[in-house]
Every structure is written in C-alpha cells, then in structure tokens.
Specification:
2 copies of one chain form a homodimer. Chain A is of the alpha/beta class. Chain A contains 12 helices and 14 strands. Chain A has an 8-stranded mixed sheet with strand order 1-2-4-3-5-14-6-13. In chain A, strands 9-11-7-12 form a 4-stranded antiparallel sheet, covered by helices on one side. The longest helix of chain A is centred in the last third of the chain and has 22 residues. The mean pLDDT of chain A is about 95. The interface between A and B is large, with 75 and 73 residues.
Chain lengths: ~425, ~425
C-alpha cells in the first residue's frame, strides 16, 4: 500500500444517486432542502446515513451532542484520519452545502470497500450536528463542542423558537450518544465543501485549495424607542426603533462596500416589536456579521459598526444596547502538510487548482484547533448557496472528491 | 325638556371606576391592555358592557359583524342619536384609546338613567368591532361594514395569523348577531376619543373640537432578491432584499420629515425571509402609511413613496412590486351643526376648546358617510397612545365627557 494508483477513482454515478436520495429528505417545493438540525427530516437522513456507513463495514458511534462518527476500519489501531461535514441545512437551503462533504466521504469509503482496500489507519467519517445553527441558533455548534471549544451543557441548553431544548430534541430523534467531547484524536481532518462563492465557478477550476478563512465578527444591535400612534405623533416627537434599525442596516451595508471586494458585511436578521399597523415600533434588533480574511480589517469593520449603532440610535432618537457578540475564524491555520497533499494529488491527477480563502464558517475551523486540518472547495453554480436554487455541475465536482480520496488514503496509509 | 341644565354632570368617580374595571380585562404586566378583537378578553369585556347597558334599561342588539348596539329608549320612535367607539386594543395598547369613548357614552346613559331623563329620541351606544385591526388586519372594519363601505363577507373572511376566520372567531365568542349593515339610521353620531397626539395636553386645553381628519394612504412595498451565503457572496454580487427594505424605511422617514410638522410617514411593519443567520435575505415587505390633513399633500407623499420603492430596489439590485394599497379619510367632513353644538356646550359649561385635526383613523370616519357626525378629543399625557403607558389626567378628561353629554342630549331632544 501507499503507492499512488491513478486508476483509483470514485463511482460518480453512485455519488450523484446518493446525493439525489438525500435531496428527497426534506425536499422543498422549489427543489431545495429544509432539513433543520434534529428535525424529523434530520433523523431520517441520519438513519439512512448510518445504514449506508454500516453497509461498508463501519462501526457507528454518537457523541453527547449527536455528532455521528462512523469508523471505517484500518489495519492498525492508530488515530484515524477523519473526513467530515454536515447533513443539516438552513431554512431554505440547497442540496449540497455540507451534504457533499459527508456523502463525498461516504463515496470514498464505498470506493475503498469495493476495491477491498484497508488503509493502515482507520478513517472516521463524521456528520457534525447543527452546523447551520438555524433551529438552535449557534453555527457549527456540534464541532465546537467536539473540539472542546464550548461545553456540552451550553449546547444542550440552547432552545428553538418553540422553547424545546437541544438536549430534548436530540433525545427525541434518538441520537444522544455517550462519547464525550474530544473522545477521538484525529491524525488529520479533511473537509470537502462547495465554495459558496463565485470564484471557482467563474474561473472554471474544479479544486479550490483552502489556504485560510475569513475572520468573522458578529454583533446584535438593540434599539429601544417608544410605541406611539403613527397618525397622532409628529415626526419630530418620534422615537422610532425601526428607523434606527433601518439606518443601521443601510450604514453597515455601506461599510461592507468600503471594504469590498474582500470584506463583507451582512445584516442577516431583524426583529421588530410590535411590528403591527398603526404603531411606531418601540423595539428592534438587528444581527450583523463582518468578514475579512485579514483579522485587522475585520476588527476595523467591527469597531466602525459599533460606532454606527450609536450614530443611528442618536439620529432616530432611541436608546441603544449591544446584544450578543461573537466571532470565529480568528487565526485559522490549516495544516501546511495537509494542504500540500491536496495540491500534490490534484497535480498528479492532472486537475487544475486555485488557492482560495474560505469566507463562510466551517466545522473544519473548530477541528483545526485539535488536529491537522485542511479543506477542499469545489465550484457551485454562480456561487449561490444558502438558497434552494444551489447547484453543482457534476464534471466540476468529481475532481475534488477524487483528490480527497487520494489525500485521505495517503494520510491513512502513513 | 330641551332646556340647558348646567347642573347636569356625569359622575366622575363612577366613570373612573368603570374605566379601571375595563383595565383589568386583558391587563398586561406593564399596566397596559392587550384585548385583541374577538379574543377571550374581548368577549369578557363585551359581556360586562352588555350587562352594564342592560342595567340602565338598554335593549342590546348585535349586527352580523359583532358591532354591539345598545339602545337607551327615547319617548318617540325616531332615528336615534348614537355615541360610539371601540373596546378592543392593539397588541400592547393602552387603557383609554377607544375605551373612553364607549365607557364615557355609558356614563352618559347612567347619568340620564339616574336623573330619570328620557330624551325624545333613543340613544344608541355602540361598540364597533375590530377598530384596531390587529388580529384581523384591517382597521375600523366593523364600522366600515356598518356604513356599507365594505361587504359583510369581506370582513367574515379575514383570517388571523393562525388561520382562524373572523366569522369563526365571532361565533366563537358568541357575538354574531342578525342585524344587517346599515340596519339603523342615526339622526347623528358623536365619538369621544383621546387625541393620540400632544397638542391638547401641551396647551392644557381639555376639549378638542375635531374639524377634520388626515387623509391616510398606505402601501406595502415588496422586494425580491436572492438568498445567498453572507460569507461567500461579495458585496457587488448581492441582491439583498433587507437592504432594499432598510433603504426604503429610511427614505420614507426622510419624506415624512420634509412634510412635517403636519405630514407624517411611518413604516409600521416589516417581514423578512428567511431572516436567519448566515443568509442574505431574499424577500422583504414593508408596510408604510402617509398622512396629511390636506389630501393633495398625502397624494404627493404617496407618489414620492412609490418612486422610492423603485429607487431603493434598484440600489439594492432587487426586484420590486407594489403589494396592498389602501386609503381612508379622504374628504372627511364632520357635520357643521354637530360641531357647532359641541362648541356651544363647551362655551356654556365654561370649558376652553381648541379646533383640531384628527391624524388617526376613527370609526367616526365611516359613520360620517351615513349620518351627521362629529368627534370630541380630550388630552392624553404627552400624546402617547398605542402604548401600554398611555395615560389621561382625570381633570383634563371629564370636561369632554360633560360636553358630549349635553351635545347628545340636546340632539336627542330635538
């Protein structure tokens, strides 16, 4: 073992069929996916995924926050090489974001299994819980807990909009396992993901070698004004919390334009009270995030956003407050050796690559804190993601899976 | 009968106690009221109101949309003089908006009853259904239907957020009556209301003689962009429906400032899809209203707002659409004789008055289309309304109720 076999390739049709089976579980009328973490759809997908893993000889275990770790056996009892991503989606999500990483990993195991290849090290294929953070509002929370960056109890106690706790929902779908955080030490971790941006697609390059990530900072701005009648209250007497929020959203968008093309700012979410006809709103919240691959630039945007909160509140005559603040991706450092291996196998397979920064958050960010890690991107049509219309072109996708196959196998044989 | 008796006055303590009993039905922790139309709280308030009316000898009838008409008998079977307003509130409403008009009317009937005064004409005291239009989203809908300005079926088929129809909810609380719209012809209609603006309070004048209303036009702007990942999508590739909405809200507020102090514009309500972390929103709706006592000025604001929808959509790179449009209060004309009567009795009682325009919508607008109508305003503290903190000062309030008493009695004796 250990020598490069250029004829070793995934079964492309099988992978596509598998992706399309996944695409039926939580399918939306518009052809996207709504498969929120710990929902009934998530349970169905997990059940199918576990069965598929067992069919290729994996032993499947769950940790305390529902991360599924499927072990493909190796010849020696050594720390495994891991492949992972997530099977959950956003509210109106696509069929490939996260899913390609997990089911691409499954295809790799199926390929090894069919060729009767047993690597030296085991290979762990992982489905991380609640990457999207939609139902339980914290991104990448399963991998964060696995890496020991957050306590189990923090995630267990998150609640959805109906007041259900994460731990109850996890028990409800039957995926509350016993493994504690960081129960497994990975020899290395690889994650394949669609780019979720337009660069690879527009350059028609099938493999993005991820050399870093964006540093993301987020903040929720809270504005408190005064309910009043929209007819009876003259303009100069108003304390309009929605106007403050709107000024903030516009200003934050302008801020992103100043830091373009690399910097980005987004107001993702707004809440308004009472949000009813005839009444000047008394309360608003806006959640924004700011991203730049240069941490200093992210910090600059962040500080300017804080100043904008104050300015917009003042202009609208309302009180302001800083709500939740968060950040991720500070000083992400993917492993040079893993990165080199991806480049190396792409070259040997004759596949063009592009060095690329990740702008989104990924489970690999957390895992890179506890294991050598790297990411491979493949193109998605027009860079569109977090959208039911998310698409991939098959011939632009399979090269990245084949590169992953060889990089993982080489590492597992080391 | 028919001669002016300056000693005829309401019982101020009784009226206050009655208002405070009402303030317990749907009381919020902050001391306001949440008594949405056709809710269980509304039912309780209606039951109590009907009992109170019957105690002073009224015969109570309901029409097909739940308007309660309590008839205080007159000596002759002539068209009645009516007093009305509403007992429902907004989501976070106050204790007096609408309620003072109905329970002030009740106090007038109690005063007549206790003094054994039987006027020539009957007096109809009316609680109009769903004035606030919060649960079933159309303002002043009970009086609109009564006046024949909308069909019964239109109101019956409105649904609340849970999908319950108005007609089911009305039957559910037991207030679906038999009277068809416009079943009663009023000789005249008087409505007492808190100002919901600061003018009377600041001038310390207890009676506002309403000489006209604002012409209100509303529109819902719809913006359609594209869901995309907030990390992966460069600023110049975005079609951000929330940014379009925010630009529109800011511009509409600026528009109101241009037409101040008389004109006002308000974005009352926003809806965003998906409104979740990590995703550029693909869809937004903003509901705005524009008000001015000069109809031409309202039309100017309205046309400018339509142009702003187009401009903001263009700036944010999204599609736009005009949703629902509505208007009310065009060419409101209160009856000169009724207005003169209010002025006359205030003068005879030695009460200072101020001529004032109504900026809010009121049931009297609809009724003025089918009967001679007039409104009396009294001050509310700092002009604050549609707010749990809505307050009245008792000594600033009772003069208006006494003026109403005399104006109604004089008209009923005519």
């Amino acid at each position: 073992m250990g020598s490069f076999d250029p004829t070793l390739r995934i079964n492309e049709k099988r992978l596509w069929d598998t992706l399309m089976q996944s695409a039926e579980i939580g399918r939306t009328p518009a052809g996207g996916l709504q498969r929120l973490s710990l929902s009934d759809e998530d349970r169905k997908m997990r059940d199918l995924f576990v069965r598929w893993c067992e069919e290729v000889g994996c032993t499947v275990a769950m940790d305390r926050v529902g991360n599924i770790l499927a072990r493909f056996p190796g010849r020696e009892n050594l720390p495994p090489v891991a492949i992972g991503s997530h099977l959950d989606t956003t509210m109106t999500g696509g069929r490939f974001d996260g899913i390609l990483g997990v089911l691409g990993g499954l295809e790799i195991l199926r390929t090894l299994h069919n060729r009767h290849i047993t690597p030296r090290r085991p290979i762990d294929l992982v489905d991380w819980t609640n990457e999207e953070g939609v139902r339980f509002p914290s991104y990448m929370s399963g991998s964060l807990v696995f890496a020991g960056l957050r306590p189990v109890e923090w995630l267990h106690s998150l609640t959805d909009e109906k007041g259900n706790t994460f731990s109850d929902a996890l028990r409800g779908i039957g995926y509350a396992g016993d493994l504690p955080p960081n129960s497994r030490t990975f020899d290395a971790y690889f994650e394949l993901h669609i780019e979720q941006g337009p660069l690879l697609y527009e350059a028609n390059i099938p493999v993005g070698v991820v050399i870093g990530g964006a540093f993301v900072r987020g903040v929720t701005a809270i504005f408190r004004g005064q309910n009043a009648h929209s007819g009876g209250t003259p303009m100069d007497r108003r304390k309009n919390a929605l106007v403050a929020a709107a000024k903030f959203i516009v200003s934050v968008n302008d801020l992103g334009l100043e830091f373009a093309p690399i910097g980005r700012t987004t107001s993702n979410w707004i809440k308004v009270i009472p949000n009813k006809g005839g009444t000047i709103p008394e309360y608003s919240e806006v959640m924004v995030d700011m991203r730049h691959q240069n941490s200093d630039q992210t910090d600059r945007m962040y500080n300017q956003a804080l100043a904008l909160i104050v300015r917009c509140a003042k202009e609208a005559g309302v009180e302001w407050q800083i709500g939740e603040e968060w950040k991720f991706g500070e000083n992400i450092r993917f492993d040079p050796e893993c990165i080199a291996s991806i480049r190396n196998f792409a070259k040997r397979l004759g596949i063009p690559t592009m060095d690329i920064y990740s702008q989104a958050g990924h489970d690999a960010y957390s895992i890179s804190c506890v294991a050598p890690a790297a990411m491979i991107f493949c193109p998605c049509v027009d860079g569109i993601s977090h959208n039911e219309a998310e698409k991939i072109i098959q011939e632009q996708t399979w090269p990245a899976v084949n590169v992953l196959l060889h990089a993982v196998l080489a590492r597992a044989d080391r």
